Amino acid sequence: MDLPNLPSAAFIAPDGKNHQAVASFVQKVVDLLLMEMGQASRRSPLPALNHLPAHQIPNQGINEVELLTQLKNIIQQSMNAAHPGYIGHMDSIPSTASMLGDLVAGALNNNMLSVEMSPILSRLEPLLLKEIAAMFGLPETAGGVLVSGGSLGNLQAIAVARNSHFPILAKGLAGLEKPPVFFTSAAAHTSFKKAAMVLGLGSDAAIGITTDQQGKLDCGALEVAIAQAQQSGQAPFAIVATAGTTVTGNIDPIEDMADIAQEHNLWFHVDASYGGALAFSPQHQHLLKGIDQADSITFNPQKWLYVTKTCAMTLFRDAGSWQSNFRIGAPYMGEEDDAINLGEVSLQGTRHGDVLKLWMTLQHLGKAGCAEIIEQNFAITQAFVQAVRDRPFLRLATSPEMNIVCFRGEPEHLPSAKWDDWNQQLRKHLLTHHQTFLSLPKHQGQRWLKAVLLNPFTQIKDIEQLFYGLDQFSLPRQ
What we know:
The protein is of the alpha/beta class. The termini are far apart. It is 38% helix and 11% strand. The protein folds into 3 domains: 80 residues; 251 residues, Aspartate Aminotransferase, domain 2, CATH 3.40.640.10; 112 residues, Aspartate Aminotransferase, domain 1. The chain has a 7-stranded mixed beta sheet, with helices on both faces. A 3-stranded antiparallel beta sheet has the order 8-9-12.
């Protein structure tokens, strides 16, 4: 390749002639990455943003030294989920295998749109997802597809639910006599409102049902809402349960909701984007009781299974029904007798080879390794919850069911109108002085602190340090 304006390592030459140049470039990036990630605990969980890298596109490519210098600055100013004190969101440290899987998938650059453009990965994805569906108790007819995030997973599930309930795959909503609606917890993810909007139903078609004191959907209120929708001329078609709400981490009464869905002949979807990882824990999988009755499930290994973003999936109880109620053929693509073009049955056409990093992580860690991390997370959570309960001025939003703790301070020496500000200042204090990052979601009109005890390197000593800082901050100011 005689292109003098390109650096020698611009591409990996298929004849291997530039092996040394590429190997040197790759090694420098890997060395930088290992050095910086291996020192992640020395940086803040949420570093200050001091300056952005050069955004102007140079006429001539910059040299490797300058490029690596800018890359180092980017790493050092990025969200630092690897820090044991980063416990504010559902963002995990990535498994080594998933990072390497992403690297290999990027190098192969296969397009998961069709089998002919990704012959092995397009066959691996359905097989692996069928295995995962079986872990949720779904039958042999189950199948699924990987998507870029839980929001797309929920959108695909609601679209299939709608299409299977109404004859609108080709002609759309215009001929329907009654407007379609579905039901979610009031604490469900905002992606369901978006899904209703994108699908032409209007965001109000996602009807939020009140929750009880433990943050779970109230099944009595659900029954009333279904009756009211029918009486008002609406057409219910689905019920959504959440296995791990975003703010408090609670799990809806999946089994009872499955019964209600069956009674009313409604599609039953479970958004297990976060809590689905419990299927890998023999000790805690009972928390998902009833999920085997779902018609569809969203699950994000990019959260509690430590796979690099993005990696999410939508699973369907009946793969044949999913495909017939969603498939749009791509005549420009070839067909195979033993495999389907996944781009024809998913929201995305061009798709990254995410299955490779998922497969590598599960092969590398195994079920036992995944379960072990989850059990450790629960143990750390128990210590955290006990520390909250030991302090009378702290209050839990709900009783935690997983490794998410939502709490807030309500110090008696301050009027209640100042409690939100107190919690905001506490969060800032913990980040600045104790290298601990908590998020500050709004819940029931108030500011709460949220801890997601996800990092396998977060230890009891880190929790003790957090509460030492909290106790110091809570002392009344003179």
